[in-house]
Amino acid sequence: MHLLPPSGPFKGAARNFFRLVRDVDLSAYDYVSFADQDDVWYPDKLQRAVARLRSDGVDGYSSNVIAFWPDGRRMLVDKAQPQVKWDYLFEAAGPGCTYVLTRELASAFKRIVTTRWDDVQNVALHDWFCYAFARSHGYKWFIDPVAGMDYRQHASNQFGVNAGAASAVTRVKQLADGWWISQVRLICALTDGNGAAVSERPELAGRMAFVRLAMLMRDCRRRQRDQLAFVAICLVMAVYNPTG
To answer: Which ranges of 78-178 does DSSP label H, i.e. alpha helix?
Structure first.
């Protein structure tokens, strides 16, 4: 365990993780995992992840989780649908506390966090950005359908499970105030180092661009339910935010 010196409040999980990625020397480690201290890891969480990284020859790993609440409620959070062409531009590969990266991927991610430090401070979700960086730069990723941990839900969660009316209201507000599309555009800008893949990406500005994006729903979200929600979001953006 290494204690880093104080460097000021970062005001959010993403910035704390970016600071760790930037300041920790990763060269001595074979694998790197993000840890949220209030979740409950299953005993075989890391062993299963490393075994899958080795057996499948992939660079990044994430898994499903079991969300649980103080009242005893439990729910499977299923993120293990097949990956699609541009899902990484619009969603993460699951909760970041399930991520395990090879040293090669972790080191590459460290480089972009370091070189684009000021820009990444505006990224709200470190796990989304990490997954987007990996996929856009040709790294292979596996999403495990087997849950690897209990994912604690409480009032202090910065971004918790998308379940229930309160969560839906929060996400509608994020759409209405432009948060969602601004984060998508930022992720696109930060993962622009892969040539042809960037030139093929869908447009993200203008009324008709959002209509065309809605038609590409199967390339943009993994789960069918989320694809339908994606269409609704794009059509709302086409009507109320035509110029971006």
So the answer is: 103-115, 117-120, 126-136, 165-176
- State the pLDDT at residue 204: 80
> Are the CB atoms for 29 and 104 separated by under 8 Å?
no
Q: DSSP assignment, residue 96?
A: G
Q: What is the mean pLDDT of residues 183-189?
A: 92
pLDDT for the residue numbered 2: 84
| Strand arrangement of the beta sheet that strand 149-152 belongs to | 40-41, 149-152, 65-68, 74-77
Tokens representing 74 are: 């439990």
Tokens 């990490």 sit on residue: 130
CATH 3.90.550.10 fits 13-160, yes or no: yes
Round the average pLDDT of the chain to a whole number and report it. 88
User: Domain residue spans in the chain?
Assistant: 13-160
| pLDDT confidence tier of residue 195, bands split at 50, 70 and 90 | very low
> Alpha-carbon distance 93 to 146, whole Å?
14
Residue-wise burial string across 28-45, b where 16 or more C-beta atoms lie within 10 A, e elsewhere: eeebbbbebeebeebeeb
